[in-house]
Design brief:
It is built from 4 helices and 28 strands. By secondary structure, the chain is an alpha/beta fold. Strand 27 and strand 28 form a beta hairpin.
Length: 275
């Protein structure tokens, strides 16, 4: 029978009496955990980490040196109203990451399970980051951004407030996402952000069968290379029997900021297949 181990707190750390610490928690030197914070079982906080009292950190997550979770939003509308940050289980938060709480009373910034935030990345207020998302070093999410599961935001990329990044989409390094980036895609550049290709490797790694991959690729080429209005194409695709194609069509139809621009050039994808 396993026995829970009391938290291991470095003598220089400051843990307020009102903080809730799970079993087997480790808190490094000069870390600060404020009253109201909830730290799940098996979490590890490195040196000089600051966890504000509005934060719930899921089990078995690690937070590396100098990260700040739950700080005030960088938003002039914020007036000290209570809001939260909820972070899922098994997340990996590396050095000097910032995750800000929501703007608006009782609002939320959320990260799903198994998210990785690499060094120096930033998650702004009211963001929703779904499970298995990766932000590479220096990637930045503005306020109210939604990043769907298994998206990959490369180094130095910035996502404008209120934009969406679809499921299994790869945003290239140093890109400026000022329009919605559709699911299952690779997007690059900025002003304008451009759709470049289906994320075929990502689809394979996610276990999509060949028929589904082909349907998604064909739908993406139709949306961004046919020369027709993406919303008109999406209305037709919404009738597809393939759930992932319907997901893609719904993403386009529900866009409030508009989707990224299409790519010019040949039509072969990285499977060597053409449509």
């Amino acid at each position: 029978m396993s026995t829970a181990i009391s938290p291991a707190i470095h003598p220089t750390a400051v843990v307020s009496p009102g903080a809730e610490l799970g079993a087997n928690v480790e808190i490094g030197p000069y870390a600060i955990v404020e009253a109201g914070a909830r730290i799940g079982d098996g979490c590890k906080l490195g040196p000089a980490v600051h966890v504000f009292g509005c934060v719930e950190l899921g089990a078995s997550s690690t937070v590396r040196t100098g990260s700040v979770l739950g700080g005030e939003p960088q938003d002039l509308k914020y007036k000290d109203e209570p809001s939260r940050v909820v972070i899922g289980a098994r997340c990996r938060i590396h050095e000097h990451v910032t995750v800000h709480r929501g703007t608006g009373a009782n609002t939320l910034t959320s990260l799903g399970d198994e998210v990785m935030l690499m060094a120096g990345s930033h998650v702004g207020h009211n963001c929703r980051v779904e499970r298995n998302v990766i932000l590479v070093n220096g990637a930045m999410l503005g306020g109210h951004v939604h990043v769907a599961e298994r998206a990959f935001i490369s180094g130095g990329a910035a996502v404008h407030q209120f934009c969406r990044v679809g499921r299994l989409t790869l945003v290239a390094a140093m890109s400026a996402v000022t329009k919605d980036a559709p699911p299952f895609s690779i997007v690059t550049g900025g002003y304008p952000l451009r759709w470049r290709a289906p994320n075929t490797i990502g689809l394979r790694r996610a276990g999509f069968d060949s028929a589904t991959r082909a349907a998604v690729r064909h739908a993406l080429w139709s949306l961004f290379r046919s020369g027709e209005s993406p919303k008109q194409v999406a209305e037709e695709l919404f009738q597809s029997p393939v759930a992932e194609v319907v997901e893609l069509a719904r993403f386009v139809l529900e866009s409030k900021r508009g989707v990224c621009s299409g790519k010019r050039g040949g039509r072969a994808d990285d499977d060597g297949e053409t449509f």
